[in-house]
Amino acid sequence: MNYCRKCLLKDMPENVYFKNLYDYIETLSEDIKANAAEYERRLNICKECDNLLNGMCRICGCFIELRAVIDKNYCPDIDKKW
């Protein structure tokens, strides 16, 4: 797996930075990842949120898929949704 460590997202073709994101998620230790059902539950909640914009959270600026996959993470909204 190749990660572009010296590139800005704006300099990468769109499909490349998405692939890098998903490759990175795949390499995370299972010890820190939420289980698959919880991950999907979180993503489904985020899909309904008004703060989701182009895969990013407008509150904290994170990529939703990356934030949701880490078990200890939580929704950054004042009224946390997960």
Automatic annotation (TrEMBL):
<protein>
    <submittedName>
        <fullName>Uncharacterized protein</fullName>
    </submittedName>
</protein>
<dbReference type="Pfam" id="PF19668">
    <property type="entry name" value="DUF6171"/>
</dbReference>
<dbReference type="InterPro" id="IPR046169">
    <property type="entry name" value="DUF6171"/>
</dbReference>
